[in-house]
Amino acid sequence: DQQVKQNSPSLSVQEGRISILNCDYTNSMFDYFLWYKKYPAEGPTFLISISSIKDKNEDGRFTVFLNKSAKHLSLHIVPSQPGDSAVYFCAASTGNEKLTFGTGTRLTIIP
Amino acid sequence: KAGVTQTPRYLIKTRGQQVTLSCSPISGHRSVSWYQQTPGQGLQFLFEYFSETQRNKGNFPGRFSGRQFSNSRSEMNVSTLELGDSALYLCASSLEGQGAKNYGYTFGSGTRLTVV
After folding, report:
1. Minimal CA–CA distance to B14: which of B77, B81, B101?
2. Contact A25, A3 (CB under 8 A)
3. Average per-residue pLDDT in chain B?
């Protein structure tokens, strides 16, 4: 039972444009959502998070939007840079230390 | 400060054997979690330890076990290895109650286990 889904396995975006990565979830008990970025041969790196009481959180080029009624969140990267090429994981938590991850989206930024 | 250290980085084992992986968390972090990453499955939660006690457990068979020592270092053990256990095993540490919220976990680089 995949409670967190990333339906796009891959995404290609031109450098300088906006990258939008999407994530859907089914468990209404999730109250924290996080995005991680992963390069090959490295562990995931925390990017940004959002609490379920908010609908938007911004940090520099990264913005996460949460639509609780649709059980959907998205990560916007503006402007996209070559160094952003990586696999992005969406994750969710019910407040304990267990994270439920999506299967990831491979983002490729085209110079 | 030093990050999360996992050893070994790579491991090849034969089906039926057992294996022990090690994780040293960031100094001061008392919570250590383990995840399994396989292609197409993303990261699957194994278990979380805090102050030498298992606080959370994922849906893995009893062949997967772990422990945490008084210095917060953690080990996970897989007995009677199966081909399907081939994966990247990731360890993550956090301060108590913070890992799943504000700044997330800090992950190590993982141990790549191959079962042949």
Report:
1. B81
2. yes
3. 91
CB contacts of B109 in chain A (<8 Å) are 41-43
Q: Which residues pair with A36 in a beta bridge?
A: A46, A89
- Burial class of residue B56 (count of CB atoms within 10 Å of its CB; 0-12, 13-18, 19+): middle
pLDDT in tens, B64-77: 999 999 999 999 99
Structure tokens at A5: 């889904």
How far is it, in rounded angstroms, from Cα B50 to Cα B38?
A: 25
Domains of chain A: 4-110 (2.60.40.10)
Nearest CB neighbour to B31, from listed A89, A93, A97: A97
Across the interface, of B41, B56, B106, the residue whose CB is closest to A96 is B56
* Residues B58 and B45: beta-carbon distance below 8 Å: yes
pLDDT, tens digit (0-9, with 9 covering 90-100), for A60-76 = 999 999 999 999 999 99
